[in-house]
């Protein structure tokens, strides 16, 4: 039975996140409903690289599933495009080796976070960027980012609700780029904890607006306590941009 | 009592159009609710340059109202930004002469219509463009447009539901421009009938895809019958872009 890998994009606005939850509209449940439809009612389980929260978007989420169906991958793309709701799209389908696993085989992920710095909030961007019209000292933010890059215990930068025990993670890259009125943060690392990117952004914005000194980042990491870092930036600015595999 | 003119932008997705309707969320009712709040419960009537339909967006709708409040125009902008829901924003407020009228004094309007020509539909654009991945002959569309420019009876290009008797209108400009995967139609004229821009777009797309010959436009105009023109293109691609005054 072939194993399929799909790259998908979704607008997270109208979803209660990626993972199946009773009575809620989720990406996984919509996707599995379409697969069941394609397989005459047989439930096909889907495994993703990881979850995304309510309101969080994806430009390159990766999932896998096994299916007895063997039509060409371009026909899978067309079928998904026709059957999935218009806030999810499958960009690419590949046949992968039997032992491929969308979650266990990731070697890294890239997240982006979009800040809208226009003076007036933009009604067309309300679900796609975080409106933050205040001035930011980018040099200070760069310095703070340099303290976050590398391998650290990120307990201070993940939701207190996390069940994961080992909170040591490695961040390979943090950078940000101005694009018109937008400031786009890029985070690349082998893996991220629950809410980690949003707390990193919230803290970097606190540094940029002078509430936290760049040097303080070292102390915040050492505290290993969520209450020392900045606020969790809102979901609508966050995009799971790319998932890396060997 | 000063008269105020406001330029506003709104994402039409979650509105049942501009105009007040019982039990429906409309731009006018949200705006008037905020004005009532600012005026301690007194109802302030708002007059727009014209209505927009459910799902139709505005980048430059114009409204006027009279108010006894006299704070500086930049404070009006800030107050509106704070009080209006996040899918409406007031871009500009000006004090205008007593006899200004947002509807009767317009000298023209510009509408834009955005077509998304990417092969795969984009979940992030589902409410902001019309996905039309088929090939289009732009030369034929330009020829068809040339027959529509000028003063004509546009009965064939307006909703049969229109109550207006005189259906003669003047279109000054129709052009379209490629912008990445988007094709943006621009329509400028002194005034447009109900659904007119969307029917013009639907008909131009029929010309571009070879279903209607450019020359046939002349005959369609002469029929003065809605059933001869193309389909009404969907609301989500349409933007009231600018309203002109002397």
From TrEMBL, chains A, B:
UniProt organism field: Peribacillus simplex
A Gene Ontology BP annotation from the UniProt entry: tRNA pseudouridine synthesis
Pfam families given in the database record: PseudoU_synth_1
SUPFAM superfamilies in alphabetical order: Pseudouridine synthase
Purpose: Formation of pseudouridine at positions 38, 39 and 40 in the anticodon stem and loop of transfer RNAs.
Pseudouridine synthase I TruA alpha/beta domain segment(s): 9-104, 144-245
EC nos: 5.4.99.12
Similarity remark: Belongs to the tRNA pseudouridine synthase TruA family.
Any GO MF annotation of the entry: RNA binding
Highest taxon listed in the record's lineage: Bacteria
Enzyme class: isomerase
Chain positions recorded as substrate binding sites: 111
PANTHER family to which the protein is assigned, alphabetical: PSEUDOURIDYLATE SYNTHASE, TRNA PSEUDOURIDINE SYNTHASE-LIKE 1
Iron-sulfur found in the keyword field: no
Record: active site: 53
Keywords: Isomerase, tRNA processing
Protein name: tRNA pseudouridine synthase A
Record bears the keyword tRNA processing: yes
Subunit-structure text: Homodimer.
Catalysed transformations (reactions): uridine(38/39/40) in tRNA = pseudouridine(38/39/40) in tRNA
